[in-house]
Amino acid sequence: MQWDIVIGLEIHVQLATKTKIFSGSSTAFGAEPNTQASAVDLAMPGTLPVPNEQAFRYAVMFGLAVNAEIGRRSVFDRKNYFYPDLPKGYQTTQLDHPIVGPGYVDIDLADGSTKRVRIHHAHLEEDAGKSLHEDFHGMTGIDLNRAGTPLIEVVTEPDMNSAEEAVAFAKKLHGLVSSLGICDGDMSQGSLRFDVNISLKPKGSNELGTRTETKNLNSFRFMEQAIAHEVERQMDILEDGGRIIQETRLYNGERGESRSMRSKEEANDYRYFPCPDLLPVVIDDDFIEGARKLLPELPDERKARFKEQYGLNDYDARLLSDDARMAAFFEETASHGKDAKLAANWVLGEFSARLNAEDKTVVQAPITGAQLGQLVARIADNTVSSSGAKKVFEALWSGSGDNADAVIEAQGLKQVSDTGALEAMVDEVLAGMPDQVAQYQEEGDPKKQKKMLGGFMGPLMKASKGQGNPKLFNEILVRKLGG
Amino acid sequence: MSISREDIEKVAVLARIRVDEAQISALESDLGNILNLVDELSAADTANIEPLSHPLDAVQRLRTDEVTETNQREAFQAIAPATEDGLYLVPRVIE
Questions:
Q1: Do residues A41 and A130 both lie within one domain?
Q2: Chain A window 19-48: which residues touch B at a Cβ cutoff of 8 Å?
Q3: How many Å is the Cα radius of gyration of chain A?
Q4: Residue A440, domain extent
Q5: Its pTM surpasses 0.90
Q6: Are residue A266 and residue A316 in the same domain, yes or no?
Q7: Number of domains composing chain B
Q8: Which pLDDT value is given to residue A99?
Q9: Which residues of chain A have pLDDT under 70?
Q10: Phi, psi torsion values for A315, nearest 5 degrees
């Protein structure tokens, strides 16, 4: 049987505010456990929450960036459940009146088409603390520094139909929130966490199947694997005549397996009610217009600018513009590199390949855009050949050299581009190959002549010990042989 | 409106409140009376009334994003039943 895959996403985005959503505690990463957990965060009796204006501003900026309606009057609700990393016994969230209403994001797919993914809404809520299950004499350790960190939870419509589309959306959203500066985008630290809702239905059917939710995926790779894994699991069950149970599942990326996390009977009985500690938050036009003024260049605009300003093709422009930091790295490279197209090739080629191979983000790269740009400039002005440039890149990456010129000098990679010296070599080589020269000059077909030039290049490269600039050799040859 | 034993047992589990057999009968009538009161309220015609999310007719004040809290871990942990390495310790929870 043929199946349609239906995917919806819920994304938790940690907002890059200085303080928590309901208290003046710092949200700085990496502090000693519980040193950033105040009386409000610990749910001490008698405390009252006061919402952070910046969290609302960031949420509104997100709403504007995804073409959404802004909730003029948003209301906080209590979602009740017991877990020790949630000291209040409820999470303060927004259920019926979220800050961001329906919107959409357009994603680019590999076949060149675009697809619109609708956003159902996005709401503000607080993060929980962290549970450490290592052995504390059979007990669990709780760090509440993260408790109360502001999140927006973005909920999409079930508009994606493959792992490719879901990952494309996730990457787009990641690029969007990091470009907006409302999230640091560091997925390895949990700044963005994805929950994936998946169901299958017979091909062409209008009726949605029972869905499962796979929670807390914090890398694009795991997300892709988890979707493939869950689709296969559901397909096996359905094709054996079984039924899918609505449940939450956890995917273990290291082992490539998933397990059920919560049974259905306990699920979703959160007994939501409006939080009596918080009044409705009213956002006026001035606030919205103020947030609009703070919107930086967004990935779609940046892509258009890259095509216009640097003459990049659509594909390269998209790859370089999605992520704000990748875009900044490229622009730094291009500004030092003299040749934007060549800079794009190096950033997307050698540089990206190394990041992937070492599982690093742009920020963790051991070289700067300026360093790569200087190398690109030396390729552009023919100081170094492309094979020599790879050696320079290697030295910069490994840290054995800190600028392209010094590495070229130290490793003797400089191409001979002195026309006088090259001409002398050409004269000498041609003098030793009179027969080939005559043959070339008698040939009437320019195409065949062009081919014959190759016969001279070998001896020339040998004469120059591999350091002659092939492009210049070629020019000189054509001139000498023709005249 | 009445409330069933099953409802009471379920709510007790969700609220992590231990309720013994003897209490359930009493709760059945007490909670039933409260629900009857709510039913009476439900009889009011609210067709033209905007739903209220808070009894006060006021708007929430927001706070500027500045750190105002200092580290009080020692004071808070002095009243915690168990701590170690700066962590609060709780009975093991593994989901």
A1: yes
A2: 19, 23-26, 32-40, 42, 44
A3: 30
A4: 419-482
A5: no
A6: no
A7: 1
A8: 98
A9: 262-268, 483
A10: -65, -50
Q: What single string gives the DSSP state of each residue in A209-234?
A: ---EEEEEE-SHHHHHHHHHHHHHHH
* CB neighbour burial string for B21-53, b if at least 16 within 10 angstroms, e if fewer: eeeeeebbeebeeeeeeeeeeeeeeeeeeeeeb
Q: Assess B18–A contact: CB distance below 8 Å, yes or no.
A: no
Q: What is the dihedral of CA A132, A135, A140, A144, to 10 degrees?
A: -40
pLDDT tens track for B71-80: 999 999 999 9
Domain boundary among A363, A387, A410: A410
Res. B1: pLDDT tops 70: no
Query: How far apart are the CA of B92 and the nearest CA of chain A, in angstroms?
Result: 4
**B53 min Cα distance to partner chain A (Å):** 6
Chain B, nearest residue to A95 by Cα:
B53
A189 and A285 fall within a common domain: yes
User: Could you tell me the residue range of the domain that residue B14 belongs to?
Assistant: 5-42
Q: Are residues A276 and A308 in the same domain?
A: no
Interval A366-419: pLDDT, tens = 999 999 999 999 998 888 887 789 999 999 999 888 889 888 888 888 877 777
Q: Is B77 on the interface with A (CB under 8 A)?
A: yes
Judge whether A52 is closer than 8 Å to chain B, CB to CB: yes
Interface contact B88-A144, CB threshold 8 A? yes
CA distance B94 to chain A (A): 8
What's the complex ipTM?
Answer: 0.87
More confident residue, B69 or B25: B69
